[in-house]
């Protein structure tokens, strides 16, 4: 005998690692995570310089001065609104991935139930002869046991199919997350530009006000009280939104990692199940000389092997070994028992993973909801500013006159 | 700006408007758009005429099988053909919708109706505004199919209606109420003509942004599915 049952059924243990919860990102640390191109930076600097020179040239009490200050209050409002819309969307996402009642969770629970019904360990002594009224020998327990496979094969095939489409859903979710992350990255880039712009504006206005302190103290005071004040307010708003967006960006990654792990688990659950059924077929042949025909499962063999390529290879190499072992009549039932143990191990690993993942997901969602709530106040203010701006702009100055927007 | 400048500017504006009406300059502006729609309506009319005429001929043939029509019948059929052709050539008359109707029209039809209304306002607008009106028309044409899947009371639809169905007509109407002579006179540093142009260009931009916003979901779905295909089929082979 070339192989022992151990080499056959001992698969590398399935380890599913739940990612750590995403920490809270503070507003002060939020800026600078997304790099801004040097060329864009200098363009923004030019824009600020032009704007400030223009502002200083106006009479403090003129409507033109007021219009430019309005432009500062609306600065970055568009970028904030955009980023807020995107970072709020993922909050409903994590719940779906971890839902026990539908999708993958439900399929796995059902699979466990079916598998438990077929478990040879729960059937008592299968090799003992069955007797009618305890006296007359009648049929074989073993034969009845393997008949159980025939009746449940359709069900198992269904569950496995459903698991594979559940896996597709998880992959689709991850694809959607990739798209959302790409969008968020772009939004963060624009926010970063606006942060750079408003910080430069802050410094420039400060300089100008200091210069004017001697020549025109009234104007210096006006600039400090209006333009500079609003600039600082906007910088704060932008930083707050940036922190929330960065956190959302990281949280999306967490959801994605969870899904990847779950996909691994689903893959393994499918393979171990199919593997156990194959073993059952061979063992039945060896023990009862019964040709156990599981059409549904044979069909599945090929599809599952195709779907899960890496583990499919494992399956293929195992088939030969199973045959050899069963034929050599070592202890076939033990082989089958071990195959079932593999399924249980996989499912337990998934359950443990889910519990831990749910925990870190909850922490992340909690922290995030907190931050989003905090930033809502700022967004509302930004919204109000843009609306005022839009109302005035129809009849007001042409919008391109002093544009404070990201590139 | 001196009075001479004003006079020159207004002369230029009216000249371009006149030449615009003759189609010389107008053809160079946006050559296809207006014409496409005109071709479309003509095509629609021709189809209607063809359907009516064929129906009359088939009816005549069927009747002719049963009862011989004779020369009188032939004359009658000919008269009917001419009448039907003429009728469908002029009916239904195309009339631009009123702003009041724009406010209540179905959201799916709104962009086209607004476009037709704007088209009707063209003669009253200064030359630079006419170019903008054309551009708004193009934007509206892009917007129209996008709105097809929105219900009348969807937030997106309400937003579009506010801009395209209410603000835009109101703004142009406001301008039209300003007496002709005052339209080129600067007030608070700007002429009403300039205000109209600035406002229209803002509206044009905003409609473009709406198109972008409405397309956002479709763009996302496309990217997502592409990514999914990559994950599922490329990563594993």
Topology of helices and strands:
The complex is a heterodimer of chains A (407) and B (237).
Chain A: H1 5-9, H2 27-30, H3 38-57, H4 63-73, H5 77-89, H6 93-97, H7 103-118, E1 129-132, E2 136-140, H8 141-215, H9 217-288, H10 295-307, H11 309-327, H12 332-393
Antiparallel strand pairs in A: 1-2
Chain B: H1 3-22, H2 24-29, H3 33-66, H4 70-90, H5 99-104, H6 110-121, H7 127-146, H8 155-177, H9 192-234
Helix pairs in contact in B: 3-4, 6-7, 6-8, 7-9, 8-9
Would you tell me the structural class of the helices and strands of chain B?
Answer: mainly alpha
Biggest interface between protein chains, with counts per chain?
A: A-B, 20 and 20 residues
Shape of chain B: flat
What is the mean predicted local confidence, pLDDT of chain A?
75
The helix fraction of chain B, in percent, is over 70%
How many angstroms separate the termini of chain B?
Answer: 72 Å
Based on the model shown, name its key terms.
heterodimer, A: 407 residues, mainly alpha, two-stranded antiparallel sheet, 12 helices, disordered N terminus, B: 237 residues, 9 helices
Structure write-up:
- Chain A is mostly helical and 407 residues long.
- Chain A has twelve helices and two strands, in the order H-H-H-H-H-H-H-E-E-H-H-H-H-H.
- A two-stranded antiparallel sheet of chain A has the order 1-2.
- In chain A, 42% of the residues are buried.
- Chain B has two domains: 88 residues, no CATH class; 136 residues.
- Chain B is built from nine helices and no strands.
- In chain B, helix 7 runs parallel beside helix 9.
- About 4% of the residues of chain B have low confidence.
- The interface between A and B is medium-sized, with 20 and 20 residues.
Gist?
The complex is a heterodimer of chains A (407) and B (237). With 407 residues, chain A is an all-alpha fold.
């Amino acid at each position: 005998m070339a192989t022992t049952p151990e080499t056959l059924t001992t698969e590398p243990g399935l380890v599913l690692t739940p990612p750590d919860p995403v920490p809270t990102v503070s507003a002060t640390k939020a800026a600078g995570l997304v790099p801004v191109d040097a060329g864009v930076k200098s363009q923004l600097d030019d824009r600020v310089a032009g704007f400030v020179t223009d502002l200083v040239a106006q009479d403090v009490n003129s409507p033109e001065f007021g219009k430019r200050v309005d432009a500062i209050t609306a600065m970055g409002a568009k970028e904030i609104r955009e980023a807020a819309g995107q970072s709020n969307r993922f909050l409903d996402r994590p719940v779906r991935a971890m839902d026990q009642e539908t999708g993958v969770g439900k399929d796995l629970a059902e699979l466990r139930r079916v598998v438990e019904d077929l478990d040879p360990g729960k059937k008592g002594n299968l090799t003992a002869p069955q007797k009618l009224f305890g006296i007359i020998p009648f049929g074989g327990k073993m034969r009845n046991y393997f008949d159980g496979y025939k009746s449940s094969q359709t069900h198992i095939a269904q569950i496995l199919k459903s698991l594979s489409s559940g896996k597709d859903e998880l992959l689709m979710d991850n694809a959607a997350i990739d798209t959302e992350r790409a969008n968020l990255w772009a939004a963060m880039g624009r926010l970063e530009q606006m942060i750079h712009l408003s910080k430069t504006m802050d410094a420039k206005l400060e300089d100008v006000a200091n210069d004017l302190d001697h020549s025109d103290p009234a104007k210096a005071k006006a600039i400090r009280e209006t333009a500079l004040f609003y600039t600082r307010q906007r910088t704060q708003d932008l930083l707050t939104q940036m922190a929330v967006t960065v956190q959302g960006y990281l949280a999306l990654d967490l959801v994605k990692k969870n899904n990847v792990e779950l996909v691994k688990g689903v893959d393994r659950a499918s393979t171990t199940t199919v593997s156990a059924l194959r073993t059952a077929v061979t063992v039945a042949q060896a023990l009862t000389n019964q040709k156990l025909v599981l059409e549904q499962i044979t069909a599945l063999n090929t599809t599952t092997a195709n779907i899960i390529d890496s583990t499919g290879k494992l399956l293929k190499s195992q088939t030969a070994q199973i045959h050899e072992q069963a034929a050599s009549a070592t202890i076939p039932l033990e082989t089958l028992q071990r195959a079932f143990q593999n399924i249980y191990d996989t499912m337990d690993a998934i359950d443990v993973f889910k519990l831990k993942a749910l925990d870190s997901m909850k922490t992340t969602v909690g922290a995030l909801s907190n931050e989003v709530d905090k930033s809502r106040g700022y967004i509302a203010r930004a919204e109000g500013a843009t609306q005022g701006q839009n109302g005035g702009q129809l009849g007001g100055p042409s919008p391109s006159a002093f544009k404070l927007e990201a590139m | 700006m001196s009075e001479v400048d004003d006079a020159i500017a207004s002369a230029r504006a009216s000249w371009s408007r006149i030449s615009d009406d003759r189609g010389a300059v107008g053809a160079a502006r946006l050559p296809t758009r207006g014409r496409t729609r005109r071709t479309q309506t003509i095509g629609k009319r021709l189809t209607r005429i063809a359907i009516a005429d064929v129906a009359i001929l088939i009816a005549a043939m069927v009747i002719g099988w049963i009862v011989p029509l004779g020369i009188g019948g032939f004359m009658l059929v000919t008269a009917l053909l001419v009448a039907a052709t003429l009728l469908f050539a002029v009916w239904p008359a195309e009339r631009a919708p009123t702003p009041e109707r724009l406010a209540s029209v179905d959201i799916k039809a709104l962009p086209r109706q607004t476009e037709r209304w704007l088209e009707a306002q063209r003669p009253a607008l200064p030359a630079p505004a006419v170019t903008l009106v054309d551009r708004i028309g193009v934007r509206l044409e892009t917007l129209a199919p996008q709105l097809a899947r929105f219900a009348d009371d969807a937030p997106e639809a309400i937003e579009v209606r506010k801009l395209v169905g209410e603000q835009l007509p109101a703004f142009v109407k406001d301008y039209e109420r300003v007496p002709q002579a005052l339209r080129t006179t600067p007030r608070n540093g700007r002429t009403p003509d300039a205000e109209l142009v600035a406002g229209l260009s803002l509206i044009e931009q905003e409609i473009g942004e709406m198109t972008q916003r409405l397309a956002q979901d479709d763009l996302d779905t496309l990217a997502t599915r592409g990514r999914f295909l990559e994950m599922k089929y490329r990563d594993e082979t």
